[in-house]
Amino acid sequence: MENILLGLTNVFTPMNLLICLAGLAIGIVFGALPGFSATMAVAVFVPFTYGMDPGQGLLLLSGLYCGGVYGGSIPAVLVGIPGTPASVPTSLEGKALVKKGEAGHALHLVTLGSAFGGFWSSIALLLCAPLLARIAMMVGAPEQIFVAIFGLSVVVMLSQDNLFKGCLVAIVALIIACFGQDPVNGFPRFTFGNSALTGGFDVNVVLIGLFSFPELFKMLEDPMGKMADAGKVGSMKLKAATVKSNIVNAVRSTIWGIVIGIIPAAGPDIAAFLSYNEAKKASKHPEEFGKGSAEGIIASECANNAVTGGSLIPLLTLGIPGSAPAALFLGAMIVHGVQPGPTLFTEHADTVYTLIIGFALINILLYFVGLGVCKCGSLILKIPKSILCTTIVVLATVGTFSINKNIFDVFVGFGAGVLGYIMLRNNFPTSPIALALLLGPMMERSASVTATLYQGHILDIFTRPLTLILFLFTIFSFAFPFVKAYLQKRKAKANAQS
């Protein structure tokens, strides 16, 4: 309790509050721009923390991290273009609500879900860090295989209208994920003599093109129109019934985000898809998903923002970063002489509790700052599409180039966009591509390591309790949609006969 009070005292100073707000605002801008991400925001500003004391530096990075994850959802709703891969599920529902003239409603749901998930992940960081860190220690290569396969089960739910097309797209995307060097042996594959393909296709570049340019081409079909009727955003007020009916969904999705956050190599994008999938399974109205479902937005946003706190749990307690931004936190902490690990909470209590309390405050501020940004950002709906398209092309081009400083990535992004538009016109789902590209490398790397560790005794992986649990979850996840469809069909048949 004494350390918590110390953290509160440190955070609630004018300078530290200003640092939290500045980091949050800058992070939102980075997240909202296609190609710019929370990781990039944290990386750019790490050198600025060297002149600060450790607590202030970590508060700045926390604001950038939380703001970056949240910011990607604003363009995902307003123009159907996710600023970050973690906002892809949000864009599926946000676009539909904008067409209904309920953009304000969608933006408020995004902001509320983001603040809720982020805040409770900071509480988990404060209260449950040692326990959750033990779970992180149990996660090895065999567990990561089933996390990846479990994630791919989302394809079944996302492609229920045309399962064959969805699975075909996912398989092709998994093959594309193999381009470049073998993750274990470093042997080049599918490079066709082109050195630019040695590193494979950058997932962020492909996703920017895949989700930016198809929307751009659709806008150009009616270039003189506006994003919504007369540029109206609609009321940002939420009905109490909507909030009340989503409490269980929000809690479940936040837990998903925290757990995914503590798993190294996973991240907010995987958490968003998994949580969206689980929300659809549990929903009483799964048919509304993809048509403007509040449940889908809440699930995605609570999960991807809960990853922020979750990824810091193994970092602070074990020195193992759970995400790319968390790895940058690790570097900043070491520069300041703060060594993460079991003794961190005693030797550097002032710094670590300043970070945790500040993290909770930042997510509370995110709600109010986010609503203000959304009210200003909603003006984008009043911009003629001809002007908006030009702006998006510039931002997407700069974004794809800035990731690796490689002009080849610009062509890859544009090619992915053309492919995405063709798929859209022929009713092929694009979301399975995102999932396969995100999970493919993780699954392949984990499978290679597992095969090396368990040579000739591969079934021994099921002696690991967590592996067995994840395996059963995976089987259930693949089977559930088919069992549910069968039961519904049987029930409808019984009702018809009676």
TrEMBL record:
Domain (DUF112): residue spans on this chain: 17-433
Keyword tRNA-binding recorded = no
Matching Pfam families: TctA (PF01970)
Chain ranges passing through the membrane: 15-46, 58-81, 106-128, 135-157, 163-180, 192-213, 255-276, 315-339, 351-371, 383-401, 466-487
Keywords (A to Z) from UniProt? Membrane, Transmembrane, Transmembrane helix
Q: What domain of life is recorded for the organism?
A: Bacteria
Family matches, as PANTHER family: TRICARBOXYLIC TRANSPORT PROTEIN (PTHR35342:SF5)
What name has this protein been given in UniProt?
A: Tripartite tricarboxylate transporter permease
Specify the species: Ruminococcus turbiniformis
